[in-house]
Amino acid sequence: MDNKKTFILFFILMSIIYIYATEEVDVSYFRNYFYRLKLLGERYKIDVENLTIGEIEEEFEKLIEPPEEKLVVIPEFKNMKYGKYKDNLIDIWTPEVSGKKPVFVYFHGGSFITDDKKDLPKDLLKKCLENGIIFASANYRTANTAPYPAAMYDALTVVKYLRKNSDFYEIDEKRIAVGGNSSGGTLALWLATHDDVSLPDYPGSIANISGKICGALCIDPITSVDPFFISRVISEKGLFIPFFLPFYNVINNNELRQQQIRLKISDANPYSNINRGDYPVYMEFIGDVENDFDGNSLTQGKILHHANLGEYFYKKYKKANNKIYFYYKGNPAPKDSRINFIKEAIWEADR
Fold first, then answer.
1. What is the pTM of this model?
2. CB–CB of 214/176 below 8 Å?
3. In sequence order, which ranges of 112-182 are alpha helices (DSSP H)?
4. Given CB 3.0 to 4.6 Å as the disulfide criterion, which of 131, 139, 216, 349 pairs with 188?
5. Omega into 149 within 30° of 0, i.e. cis?
6. CA 71 – CA 125 distance, rounded (Å)
7. CATH of domain 71-347
8. pLDDT averages per 10-residue partition of the chain, 351 residues
9. Distance between CA 218 and CA 109 in Å, rounded?
10. Hydrolase among the record's keywords (predicted)?
11. Residue 100's CB: how many other CB atoms inside 10 A?
């Protein structure tokens, strides 16, 4: 038996013993843990086979907040509570400009499982402030604590919260743009492709406030959270990507085929909800659009972030006569295209 199998079996055994000993840990934690191991091994080329559990945790924490990425600009408002859940926290940076200002809200990535609002593009934060734009970075509930639609509803709540408190934060409530990377980009696309949703389980003071945005900037986004669509157009392995289980609150892949789960998938999937009149979108992918590739040889990270999924989204969005920018390795983004898109979206918001 190789080292990896030995490690996994040992970890499972110790996990079961711990569960029975403490009765405090949900099984989803361990399903989550293995997903984190795969993420580290595949996406970041970390040798998980020869590391202890403690060392794996240390490597993971370094990825969440690399020392060189620590912010040099302190948020004016830190850990502000925007909703009723523990993870509903937001940091806000305000430029030195008088009067009401536009705001750009950033959602971190992590495939709906990991990461934190501290994981943000420092260069884009600085450019927003230099251009008189408020920058906000929000946490949201991850799939291991709350399945769909929790993350999407949290993203919507952020927009409603900022609009409700526009006087306090000096926000121009007509000019709220959103964005994010990976699953954070998915949240931005969900907001761009969904009609305003009322939140009946929230206090009345925020439930019926508009959740409209003026644009969505998405970096290497997961444009589809439909495992069946992904398995059909990219790789058969798409149906077996681990995060879909906690995200849709199912135990195994067969449960994804149930009618009520298929309805959830349809509602969660930005690609399935594209309509005429959706908000402007910017998408930038690390990889390339490919005509001929072996999908089954791809890692799960490359499957989820494949530029071909972006191309499907781009074509459908364009066909619906919506404004969209689509960049990838073979069509690289021009210099300052991210901040230029944000400025364009916010200043054209009232046209």
1. 0.80
2. yes
3. 122-130, 150-164, 166-169
4. 216
5. yes
6. 10
7. 3.40.50.1820
8. 53 50 42 52 57 60 51 84 92 94 95 85 95 96 90 94 95 96 96 78 71 95 95 91 91 92 94 94 95 86 94 97 96 96 88 51
9. 10
10. yes
11. 16
**Distance in angstroms (rounded) separating the CA atoms of residues 150 and 141:** 6
Identity at 158, one-letter amino acid code:
V
Q: Which residue has the tokens 């849709």?
A: 248
For residue 169, how many other CB atoms are within 10 A of its CB? 20
Q: How far apart are CA 351 and CA 343, in angstroms?
A: 14
What are the extents of the domains in the chain?
A: 3-64, 71-347
Other C-beta atoms lying within 10 Å of the C-beta of residue 328: 22
Hey, CA dihedral for 328, 331, 336, 339, is it positive or negative?
negative
Residue 288: CB atoms within 10 Å: 13
Whose tokens are 């408020």? That residue is 134
Amino acid, res. 342: I
Which residues neighbour 70 within 8 Å (Cβ) at sequence distance 6 or greater? none
Give Cβ neighbours of residue 27 (< 8 Å, ≥ 6 apart).
19
Q: How far apart are CA 339 and CA 211, in angstroms?
A: 22
Q: Give the pair of three-digit tokens for residue 8.
A: 């996994």
